Structures are given as structure tokens and as C-alpha cells.
Amino acid sequence: MPQLLEFFRKNKSRQRGISDETALDRKYHTFKSLLAGNNQVLEFMTDLERLMYDGRSFTQDEALELTESLVAGVYDLVEDLNSLSGGAYPELFDRAESISVEALKLLSRRRRFESRRLIFPLEHLSLDNLDEVGGKAANLGEVSNRVGLPTPHGFAVTASAAALFLHHSGVFEHVRRELSATDIGDTARLEEAALSAQERILAAPMPPELQTALAEAARGMVRTFGSQVRLAVRSSAVCEDSQASFAGQHATVLGVAPQEMERAWREVVASVFSPRAVFYRRTKGYSEEDVMMSVLVLNMISAKASGVIYTADPNCLDDRDILVSGIWGLGLSVVDGSADTDFWRVRRRDRGLEARQVALKEERIVLLPGGGTMYERVPQEQRTMPCLNDGQVARLVEYALRLEEHYGTPLDVEWAMDAENRFVVLQARPLMQANACKLPESCAFIAGYAMLLAGGQSASPGTASGVVHVVETGYELHGIPQGAILVARQTSPEYVAAMGKVSGIITDMGSVTGHMASVAREFGIPTLVGVGRATHTLQHGQVVTLDASNQVVYEGRVTEILHERKPVNLMKGSPVYKSLQQALKLIAPLNLVDPETPEFTASGCQTLHDIIRFAHEMAMRSMFCIADDLDMQEGLAVPLFTGLPLRFLVVDLGGGLHPILSGRMAEVTDIICMPFKALLEGMSHPGVRWTNATQQESSGCDAAVADSVFRSRLPGSGLGGANYAIISGEYMNIHGRMGHHFATVDSYCGPLLNDNYIMFSFKGGAADAGRRIRRAQLIGATLRWLGFRVVQKGDSIRAEMKKYDQKRIMEKLDMLGRLLGAMRMLDLTISPDAQTEWYVQQFLKGNYTFSPPPEE
Q1: Which of 244, 277, 299 marks a domain boundary?
Q2: Please, which of 272, 431, 525, 804 could form a disulfide with 410 given CB 3.0 to 4.6 Å?
Q3: Which comes out higher in pLDDT, residue 55 or 25?
Q4: Could you tell me which residue, 181 or 269, shows the higher pLDDT?
Q5: Which residues contact 816 (CB under 8 A, 6 or more apart)?
Q6: How many CB atoms are located within 10 Å of the residue 39 CB?
Q7: Could you tell me if 262 and 329 lie in one domain?
Q8: Catalytic: which of 250, 515, 609, 616?
Q9: Angle formed by the axes of helices 2-16 and 23-53, to 10°?
Q10: DSSP annotation of 497
């Protein structure tokens, strides 16, 4: 990291491309470089903050690249400032380096899995092992070993084992690079890249020590359960079942024979790189390292019935009813949405049955004796029979509430019932709930609109309207248009890869407790499942309105129930999000607000924003004194005739004047510099009286005569000495003596609002101290009315104005020019009892001669 920062410092001078310039030119070009750099770093900082608050997904590499650009820009600012100021702030480099290294370190972190422990028996697991074996395995160990509820037996293959495997042949880095360059919004490209990644992983060589450990663990299961044991090889990736559920995103392989366990383990590890898993992970703010795969291996329960229980309604935080769903056989079809399920709603307060729905269950998934699973027909008499009786539902509810009490949060629990009607817990994790509990969108059907469908279950509440896009399989996702209503036969985790496009989802089959329903709630997508005939009733390309809260689908767009949904920040809470959140604490806060405070110093900079602010302020102050450099210049100044009794010598830094013939003085019509032109227009206002009548008469002579007069007077007297104007097309610095006082006006007036400013100082006069101070008070009060920030000390004024558009800056400079003329001799005429407010109001009304004066 320090080497990177040193590179930024050393290469700045090569980037500027300035040669053969005077010291004044170099100073101005350095100042312009600083202004441009200031805008750029502020844009980088804004882009970083947008990553945090706009709610769109971003990668760790994206945040790191932006921060590196910001750091490089800050170093440019510090170097420019030191170039402008003659090296006055060397300590600012140390502050920049110290802060930048910490910010980059936070964003450069890569999670590492380097434990030598490859296998953990389930009886040794609890939530204490979460970081090594993932949420599914750690939670199941917690259920078994600390809550005391029955679970299958088995072991976890650690995340370190997967890391060892993936890094052993270098496949991980290759896959990471390929996927990081893939736009997850391009579904076709995502599928192609993900398939390539999975093929590489499935073909990668196995480290010998891991191969040995897996074989020994499989033999242990045979010793315990016999050679006919069949295994469930389940994903338990680190970060699963955390603030992001990863529901259904990774593979589970069921009915695995012990000798096939290594192959199944590879499949589960490779599923980290499936299209839906990559889309979900990137959308939620997890990098490949964050989701290293631990694998849970369990003895299969030959389930008579299986299902899911929610200890609260996921669509409403206030509804504490307990929801139970179940089906005959293995529970895969419950969570993947491939079948309708039996459903029970149980009241928490008295454990009474609130509702029961019995589905037609024509098929079930069962274990094959030789390994694997198959669908078989459900016996006729069981097809319309509930898979649980009321007593069994009550026992399940007691299990679930014991778990909820232990965890202290609503839970999503998978269960199975064996042939002897004994229940086992297969999984327990925090319940993914909808973002807010909202009242139904309407309490009755909307009159005047055709109702196409009614019924089903609200898997994720809300309303949406769009064009119907009917899909048959998850492999048709790349053609879905933005904002479509996805209509499918069944819910499927595969549809997660399209959730960045769709505005709503409707399915014929599926349940609230399925994996896709969980993810839809996370993404805030209105979803209606188990409708029955959506794929037959809704036509491809038809515009419909989905009211998932009330289980209704209307023809056309029903504006009465549509409202803008609050965007869901899917990144919030993820490792990438947290890293940027911590880094921004070192980047974005602005502590150095007031340049007049003692803390406004280089050593007082606590963040990169402080350094940016400090560099900008000190650069303007350095340019404010740019006329001090004129002692080093010879032959640069051109006399300027303005018609005013003031001597102007102009130094053009480039683009400030039209070309002047050798030996000719410049005229006002030669001025290109926008801020100088605006200031002179104000100074030349007809209402401003600079001279007595005789002087005014002579000032109106033609330019040729004036040129002769002017040259004859150089370097003689006048209203003070020479006034130096250092200008370019957008920059002006006037430094001089107008009568008996000193004034400096420094301004940049360009197309970028962030660059623009006016700085003004005024001091002195011919009168006594009391009158000079009163005049300073009048000037300060007037400037405040004009919008300047003003600091007055005795008879001196310092004022500034920043970040106005070009037009407003020129208007303010015009008024400042008028003020310079109006207040020029006021210190000699103002009375001790002068009414400040009267003078200010007269000036603002255009009475620049202040006549008649107020009565004493």
C-alpha cells in the first residue's frame, strides 16, 4: 500500500506537461490543475457515497478502484498546494498517507480460510463454529447440542477445505477474474461465465490430504449406519443464513452413496458459481471469498412427510401466527416450489388452528435403494389426505417455539417425519421477512377493471404492473424485458437471476415457505404463488397489474393501487457494504468547516475530505497573494486604459486579452477575462463617482489621447500606485492601491460551479481609525447582504463567496466593482453617528453617492 501512494507522489510532476513557463505561469497552471483535481476528487467521493446510498449492487473491486482514484487525486492536490505555496505544507503528505492507507486497507481485505481442520463431526458443532462451517451446519449443531432437539447425524467439511481445493490448482483466481469482469445484468453472459467456472471446478485436481479426509469421513458414516446408508450432501456456505439467506442458491445432493460422496461434494462446491448464486451474491454485496463453501453431510431420513415451519408470518412483522407447510415424502418440492403443499396457520396465543388447506398431492419424492431420488405416485387414498394430523402439527409448533425462544428471533425451520412418526429438524435459520408490514392495498376488488385471477398465497406483498413474460424453465431468463411480470408454472430458485429485471412474479404452484419466496421478500418483489392457472390464463405480452397483498391480478394498468415502492438496499449489511461504510468514515466526513478556527491546519485534517477542503482553501489564499510574485517578472505587464482614474497594469496568463500590437496599450474592448470584465463594468457604472468634474471630463477623451496622457504619467502618481491585474480567460487577481486604501480581488469564474469563487480584502484609508473602522463596517454589512461570508477586524475586511454559477459570480463581481467606487472616499465623509443600515440600503437601491446623507 505505501508503495502505491509513493507512486502517486512521484508521478504527479510527469503528468502536468508544463514546460518553458515563467514562475507566474507555472503558479497559475498549478492552480488550474488543483481546481480540476478538486472537482475530480469530489466526484470520486460522491460516486463512493452513491455506491452506499443508491441501493445498486457493487463489487469490492469497484469500491477499491474508486478509492484508489480518490487517493491518487488527493495526493495530486497536496502536491499542487505545496507547489503553489513554496512547500509550506509538507506535513499534509503524511496526513494523506496515514488516512489513505487505512481506507485502502479496509477495502483491500480478502477473507482467508487457512484452518488445518478439514472435518468437524456434527456433535462438536454450535454457532461458535459459524465462521468455519457456515450457517446451516453451525445452526444444526446448535439445535442438536444446545437446544436438545433431534437432528440427523453427520459432519461438516469446512470452508478451509473448499479453499484448499480451489486454490490448489489455481482455479479459484481464474474463476474470480472471469466472473468479476461479467455484468450480472447480462443474463446470457452470466450463464456462460458461470457454466465455464463450474466446469473448471468439477475437473480440478483434489489435494491428497483432502481426498483422504473425505474418504475417511465417508467410511465413518458406513461404520455407524451400515453400507446401505444414504447421505444428504448440503451446502453450508460461510455467510449463508446470515443477513442474506442465500435461500436455494446453492446445491443439495440427496441420496448419495458413501463412495460417491467426493463427487457430490464437488457439485456442492461448484454450485457457488451457478448463475443464480453469482447474481444473488453480487447483488447482495458478497465477494467470492466471502461465500467460501462449507458442506454439511448427513445421514438421509427416509421421510414419510417433510416440510417447513415459520414461527411468524413473513409478510407482516406484527402477525405472530405460526405457518406450517408439508408434503408426502422428501421435502425438496416444498422449498423448490415444484408442488403444492398442505398448509396450516396456528394462533400463537392459544395454539388454536386458524386455517388449514389440504393440497392435491399426486407425486412425492422418495429415496432410491441404489442411491439418488425419484418421483413416485402417491397412493390414491393419500392424495387428498393431510400429511400431518392436528397432534403432529401441535408437536411441530412446540419444537419451533422452543427454537425461537433459544434464538430470540422468528425462524424458518425445515423438518422431516420418519416412518415411525418421529420428527427431526433438518435446518433452522432466521426468517427472511418483508421489509415492512403494510395494510392491504385495497379491501375490495377495483371497479372498472377486469379481474383475471384471484387466490393463491402472498409470498411477498405489494403491487406491480408490467408486461407478462411467461417462462417454462429457468433457462429462458435472458429474454425477460425490464419491468416484466414473470409468470411461471412453479416457483424456482433459478428465477433469482432475473430478479434484477422483473417487477413482480406469479406462479401456478409454490408456497410462501419456498426458497424463491424468501428471496423475493429480500428483494422486495411482489410475488403471488399457488394461483393455479396463471400460465394458462395470462397471455405473453399482456399488460397486467399484480396486487400480491390481496391475491388479485387485473387486466391492464390499475393506477389506483400502484405506488412507488421504497427501494430495497440489498447491499446493506454485507461484507462489501460494511467495508465501504468503514472506509467512508475516513473519507467523507468534513470536520474542517471554518477556516477561521485554530483547528483549520494541516495536522487538523482527520479525513480525506478535510485534506481536500484544506488544500482548496489554502490554494485560494496562495493565489490571493499571487501579485507578490510580480517582483520576479519583467516585461510582462501591459498598460490598460479603462476611462477610470486608476492605473492598471495587466499580466495575461493566457486567454485574458485579445492580442495587443507591440507598443499599444490595451483597452477595455481587448479584455476577454470574464471576471475582470464584470468587475470593471461595476466600477464603470454611471452612478459611481470616482473623480471631480474636471477629472471626469478628461477621462472621457478618446483612447489615443488617453494613451498619450497615460504614458506621460507612468510611473507617476494618480489615485494610488499601479493596480496589477493578473488574468486569464476565467481567472482574475486584482492587487493594488485605490486611493489611500489597499484592495485585492481574486476570482475564478468558469463553467463548473465547484471551481467558482470570489475572495476580497480591503484595508486602510486616509481618515482616523474610528472612521476607517466605520467604513469597514459598512462594507462588511453590504457584502453580507450580497451573500459574502465576511470577517472584519478593525479597518480590514476579508470576504469570500464560493460555488455560485458563472452568471451569479459575474453579477456579484459587478456589484463589488460598484462597492469599491462608492466606498472609496467614504471614510473621509462618514460621521461618527453614521447609520450603517441607511448606507447599506442606499447602496442596494443604487444610490452610490449616498445623497442626501441621513440627518444627524
Answers
A1: 299
A2: 431
A3: 25
A4: 269
A5: 679, 682, 745, 758, 760, 786
A6: 16
A7: no
A8: 515
A9: 130
A10: G
User: What SS3 class is residue 155?
Assistant: strand
Q: Which residue has the cell 418483489?
A: 525
Roughly what angle, to the nearest 10 degrees, separates helices 60-84 and 2-16?
Answer: 50
Same domain flag for 290 and 218: yes
**Where are any strands of DSSP class E within 200-339?**
231-235, 252-256, 295-299, 305-310, 322-328
Q: Range with the lowest mean pLDDT among 7-21, 242-256, 663-677? A: 7-21
Distance CA 447, CA 505 (A): 23
Distance, in Å, from the CA atom of 643 to the CA atom of 116, rounded to the nearest integer, reads: 87
Amino acid identity at 30: T
433: Cα separation from own chain's centroid = 23
Number of domains present in the structure of the chain: 5
Q: Is 771 a domain residue?
A: yes
Per-residue pLDDT tens over the stretch 817-842: 999 988 876 766 776 666 788 888 98
* Cβ–Cβ under 8 Å, residues 766 and 817: no
pLDDT tens-place string over residues 112-170: 777 889 999 999 999 999 889 988 999 999 999 999 999 999 999 999 999 999 988 78
Give which of 581, 614, 561, 304 is closest to 438, Cα–Cα. 561
d(CA 73, CA 302): 63
3-state secondary structure of 503: coil
* Residue 186 located in a structural domain: yes
| pTM of structure | 0.65
User: How many CA atoms lie within 13 Å of 661's alpha carbon, on the beta-carbon side?
Assistant: 1
Cβ(346)–Cβ(353) under 8 Å? yes
Q: Are residues 67 and 145 in the same domain?
A: no
> What DSSP state is assigned to residue 656?
S
- Rounded to an integer, what is the distance from CA 229 to the centroid of its chain? 50
Maximum alpha-carbon separation in the chain: 121
Tell me how far apart the alpha carbons of residues 97 and 1 are, in angstroms, rounded to a whole number. 9
pLDDT for position 229: 93
Separate counts of helices (H) and strands (E) for the chain: 24, 30
282 is written with which cell numbers?
453480487
The strand ranges marked E within 587-740 are: 638-641, 648-652, 666-667, 723-727, 731-738
Which of 527, 544, 525 minimizes the C-alpha distance to 490? Answer: 527
Residue 546: name the closest of 452, 474, 476 by CA: 452
Least confident stretch, 413-427, 447-461, 508-522: 508-522
Share of the chain above pLDDT 70, in %: 86
Per the CB < 8 A criterion, the answer to whether 80 and 592 are in contact is: no
Task: Note the pLDDT of residue 67.
Answer: 94
What is the span of the domain harbouring residue 750?
626-845
Pull the grid cell for residue 523: 428483494
Is 515 annotated as catalytic?
yes
Q: Are residues 324 and 281 in the same domain?
A: no
Contact 676, 656 (CB under 8 A): yes
Instruction: Kindly list the distances between the CA atom of residue 274 and the CA atoms of 120, 193, 235, 245, 756, in Å, as whole numbers in the listed order.
Output: 26, 9, 13, 16, 51
